[in-house]
Design a protein that fits this description.
The two termini are 29 Å apart. The protein is of the alpha+beta class and 350 residues long. The strands form two sheets. The protein has an eight-stranded antiparallel β-sheet with strand order 2-3-4-5-12-7-10-13, with helices on both faces. Strands 1-6-11-8-9 form a five-stranded mixed β-sheet, with no helix packed on it. It is built from twelve helices and 13 strands. Helix 4 crosses helix 11. It is globular.
Length: 350
């Protein structure tokens, strides 16, 4: 693995536009500046395939739009005097971040995440060799995050408020599976043909939309966690049901039979489960099945029919309909566009 050594005793900031795109070019790419705020790095065989756009949205925000594979592993280190918030909407990735002695943060599945990077100590990023990196990664100064998006106090979940105030150690603030809205937004951004500052304008809007989706989901989760259930027994029923579904989500049990086994009625169980976790039992099982299917499709070792069977569908057509409704594309399209680099990417645009 190659390690990038800082040119001076001071490590670069993750928001340093010039250093970031020169760093991308050093990873076997060919970079050229498209406009004042946009640099494109193209990777051509045998040194990789695809491209990355590095876009500056101001002094307090930097975005990378990534659709590439680099055959050699890479590592580089940042350090910032101010806390940062990162937003990652990944369709495919294999990245690990380390910060001091804290456990590593690993990103290796399709998800939308918000992460806090506190000020002070160096943070290293490690990119796996040969894995497709595909998605959008934005970095913001924590102190100006709320004002950048015009957010009011009630718009900001407590976890994010604590991160902005510098009260959170490094870690995920929130993580959510990619749904149809986000998959479509990210895929369209990756395929965009806008150039120059029009690319900057587009990305400003797309990033704001992704932030809105993430905060909406965080606020919903917070309300679900803090909602007062009528009795402790109701909470116990909800957790008992989730434990059963975590074992049997591939072939969900009959909810009426499960309710009787737990010691309640089906309607009661449905109500307390939704109140406790913010999802119906059917949606909880679907989300688990689709998320497992996404991982299996990315690994590209099973046929689509085998993936369908692995996650509990007797018929490939039923699996395809459920997957498409949840993710926004068919399993075949998802595998073709989102799988690791076992297939060539199309030629990069010059």
């Amino acid at each position: 693995m190659r390690t990038r050594s800082p040119a001076s005793s001071e490590l670069p900031s993750a928001l340093d536009f010039d250093r970031e795109w020169s760093r991308a070019a050093s990873e076997d790419g060919r970079s050229h500046r498209l406009s004042r705020n946009v640099v494109r790095t193209i990777y051509a065989p045998p040194r990789g395939s695809g491209m990355t756009d590095t876009v500056r949205l101001g002094d307090d925000a930097l975005v990378n739009v990534i659709n590439c594979v680099v055959p050699r592993a890479a590592n580089w280190t940042y350090s910032d005097r101010e806390a940062l918030i990162t937003l990652r909407a990944s369709l495919a990735c294999d990245v690990e971040f380390r910060y001091g002695q804290a456990p590593p943060l690993v990103f290796n599945r399709p998800e939308l995440t918000l992460t806090c990077i506190p000020a002070g100590l160096p943070m290293s990023a490690n990119i796996a060799a040969g894995a497709r990196q595909q998605g959008i990664v934005a970095v913001f100064r924590a102190g100006s995050f709320a004002s950048r998006f015009g957010l009011l106090g009630e718009d900001i979940p407590p976890e994010l408020q604590a991160a902005i105030a510098g009260e959170v150690q490094m870690g995920r603030l929130a993580s959510f599976p990619i749904d149809q809205r986000i998959a479509a937004l990210v895929a369209d951004t990756l395929d965009s043909r806008l150039h120059g500052e029009l690319r900057t304008v587009q990305l400003g809007g797309r990033i704001a939309e992704l932030v809105a989706y993430a905060l909406e989901a965080m606020l919903h989760q917070h309300k679900a966690r803090t909602a007062a259930l009528p009795r402790r027994r109701d909470l116990d029923l909800a957790h008992a049901a989730r434990t059963r579904l975590d074992k049997d989500y591939r072939r969900p049990p009959n909810f009426g039979d499960m309710a009787r086994q737990i010691g309640t009625s089906q309607n009661k169980l449905k109500s307390v489960f939704k109140q406790a976790f913010g999802l119906t039992m059917a949606d909880y099982c679907l989300e688990r099945r689709v998320r497992e299917a996404q991982q299996l499709l990315m690994e590209a070792t099973l046929t689509i029919a085998q993936v369908a069977e692995r996650v509990g569908y007797e018929h490939q057509s039923s699996f395809a309909a459920a997957f498409s409704g949840h993710v926004g594309m068919s399993p075949r399209e998802y595998r073709r566009h989102r799988a690791p680099f076992s297939l060539d990417l199309p030629p990069a645009e010059a």
